[in-house]
């Protein structure tokens, strides 16, 4: 087992639901974890599908919570958004954008293929400095509360298995194949370099 804990990043579009649920669970399991979004703005469901609440990444979870509480407490309580924001603000102050982070990770997990493509594109556009590998793995997770929870446990189990490998570089492909068979999901996987 690697002596140092894996440095893990979990990335979705708005750093609200899927990445934060996984951040929460991985953090409780002792992982060194950060979470991010790749979108240009943070979007939360609004009163209608074509009327989302759009925020800047600089907006804190607390500010979003208070804004939605003021707009329609009943709607945002009933659809679980206030509960989600309450959880988020206990984990970190605000959403973060992956493209603005220059930290180094061992493993980056994305929650949908479009986000995976954005992460890989961003990593490949950076100037390589250390040539340290980072594994980028996509676990498709639907953007709803139930799927976010199930996906977070799957991500956590995957991280725990990778953490316990003797040689991550040589064992990860086989491990992912086993996970695909067990979960009935397919994972995209690539290696980028810092």
UniProtKB/TrEMBL annotation:
Keyword Transmembrane helix set for record: no
* EC number(s) given by UniProt: 3.1.3.16
By its UniProt entry, which Gene3D superfamilies does this protein fall under? Answer: 3.40.50.2300
Q: Which GO terms describe its cellular component?
A: nucleus
The question of whether Nucleus is a record keyword is answered with: yes
- Catalytic reaction(s) noted: O-phospho-L-seryl-[protein] + H2O = L-seryl-[protein] + phosphate; O-phospho-L-threonyl-[protein] + H2O = L-threonyl-[protein] + phosphate
Q: Where in the cell is it found?
A: Nucleus
Q: Which GO terms describe its biological process?
A: mRNA 3'-end processing
Identify the domain of life.
Eukaryota
> Which is an annotated GO molecular function term of this record?
RNA polymerase II CTD heptapeptide repeat phosphatase activity
Q: Name one Pfam family in it.
A: Ssu72
EC main class here is hydrolase
InterPro entries linked to this entry? RNA_pol_II_suA
| Alphabetic keyword roster | Hydrolase, mRNA processing, Nucleus, Protein phosphatase
Question: What is the similarity comment for this entry?
Answer: Belongs to the SSU72 phosphatase family.
**Role according to the record:** Protein phosphatase that catalyzes the dephosphorylation of the C-terminal domain of RNA polymerase II. Plays a role in RNA processing and termination.
Name of the featured protein: RNA polymerase II subunit A C-terminal domain phosphatase SSU72
Q: What gene codes for this chain?
A: SSU72
């Amino acid at each position: 087992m690697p002596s140092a804990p894996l440095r893990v990043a979990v990335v979705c579009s708005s750093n609200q639901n899927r990445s934060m649920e996984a951040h929460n669970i991985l953090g409780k399991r002792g992982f060194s974890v950060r979470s991010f979004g790749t979108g240009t703005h943070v979007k939360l469901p609004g009163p209608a599908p074509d009327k989302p609440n759009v925020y800047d990444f600089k907006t804190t979870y607390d500010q979003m919570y208070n804004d939605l509480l003021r707009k329609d407490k009943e709607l945002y309580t009933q659809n679980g958004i206030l509960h989600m924001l309450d959880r988020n603000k206990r984990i970190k102050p605000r959403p973060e954008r992956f493209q603005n982070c220059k930290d180094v990770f061992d493993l980056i997990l994305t929650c949908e293929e479009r986000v995976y493509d954005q992460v890989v594109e961003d990593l490949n556009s950076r100037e390589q400095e250390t040539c340290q590998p980072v594994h980028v793995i996509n676990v498709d997770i639907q953007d709803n509360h139930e799927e976010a929870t199930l996906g977070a446990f799957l991500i956590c189990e995957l991280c725990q298995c990778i953490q316990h490998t003797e040689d991550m570089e040589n064992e990860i492909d086989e491990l992912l194949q086993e996970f695909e068979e067990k979960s009935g999901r397919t994972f995209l996987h690539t290696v980028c370099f810092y």
